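Dear support,

We are seeing what looks like truncated structure output for some complexes. This example has two components. We would appreciate it if you could run it in full and send us the complete token output so we can diff it against ours.
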Amino acid sequence: MAGPNPGSRRGRFAPYALISPGLLWLLLFFLVPLASLARMSLSTKQSRFDFDPSFTWDWGNYADVFQKYGVQLGRSFLFAAAATVLCLLIGYPMAYWVAFRAGRWRNVLIGMVVVPFFTSFLLRTVSWTVVLADDGLVLRVLRSAGVVGVLRSIGLTDGDRLLDTPLAVIGGLTYNFLPFMVLPIYVSLEKIDTRLVDAANDLYATGSAAFRRVVLPLSLPGVFAGSLLTFIPASGDFVNAFFLGGTRSRMIGNVVQDRFLVQLDYPGAAAISLVLMAIITSAVLLYAKLLGTEELA
Amino acid sequence: MRARAGRLALGGAALAGFVYLFVPIALIVAFSFNEPAGRFNLVWQRFTLDNWLHPLARSDINETVLLSVEVALVATAAAAVMGTLVALALARYRFRGGALINLLLVLPLTTPEIVMGSSLALLFIDRGVARGFWTVAIAHTMFCVSFVAITVKARIRGLDWTLEDAAMDLGAGPWRTFSRITFPLILPGVLAAALLSFSLSIDDFIITSFVSGEGDVTFPKYVYGAFQRELAPQVHVVSTALLLLSIGALGLSVLYQRRRT
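Here is the complete output from our reference environment:
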């Protein structure tokens, strides 16, 4: 953590006056709603058409999460983990290349990484249905190369298709969250003093040793932040599964969306949301411990 | 020789990553020039300029775009002001609770959207607030405040605040100091954050689907429904136009920064 800026001062009232509108907004519309969510998760619906459930300390909603939706819950974390690993494998070389090899094109190229954000997220996902379509070029090439059979045998696809399969959903998640992986890694790589790498080379480190011992450790905060910014939204996503997945690839987000917005089962949806959040929080803490970094963003 | 091969492999991998990112975008642009055979603009038929000659032909789509832009403008303005104030406080002052504020700012970024959407919707339901334009604007402002505060804080971290003292020493009052020194210093960071907020808000679907009423169809909500009903080529035209506008804005800001440095 860098020290305070030159000219920074010890404030009495001024800093509190400055933060109060933003702070109040986040308290009212981020923290307080979580209390509503917790309360609703312990409420009971008297009938299917009771849309104003009463608070009863009903822990049964939580039992339902695991009994009824355990499969979707597990699948969500599996898909999100797979997408995070793929984002790391694709995103790290991109960030590295832009940071160290792109020269004066660095700013333009890193700008290009965020260009996808400027068109509709939903329409970009819809476009993958065109790429993966049943009579599309990609499927034909993969089929003639015999890849489809392999994918099917390991359970990533169904039948002779790519659409409506787990593979399509994982690919969609990877695609949608890739920029969130590239950007933080790029930021941490860009900060590295290249003289450190020169020093390693002068001390007879091979290229790969210099990378392993110098560059990689210094980029871990970026890897950490990027993994969180990929894994967390991916595990709660329902858009990719809606457009690209079939019944065998429904995620927990689809369940919450259906429970809340279609069935109006607020207690059930609230319990699932809270379980999702609890698991993610524990996973993040565990990951922080494994990677040995306390820095969140 | 081996180093050279490694270099090529790295470049190839990076290139493949960029291609992956741009395949759907290329398709969106291409399909804005397609003449669809049925109701769904998802199979390539033949090239036409019709869609671009009549981009506003579908008033139902135009209304959804207008609504999304209105929400994004309100949320961006509110978040830019509140988020910048928070960033100023964190960058300029040492005070009790600063670390806690930093944590609170990161939380919305590390919480799944379905959790934020469902919890906020329940708050509105609990309090008997009808979901509509303002509940959507409130929700978008909430996550944009975090993004603005974090972005602006990162951008103004290294600024030299002694300039303000110098201005004051030379007799400038607090207001003059702010308008002539502080504001010009932080402006580039605030504009970048506002651009980010706008693009996040205009494209938000998951939170919006929870906190909006049935009649408030934003552009993302329209696209979601359209996938089952009808996908007109104007959807692709609108998305391509938005893309071109954003790239233009980004290009201008890069040029501006080049000139300054």
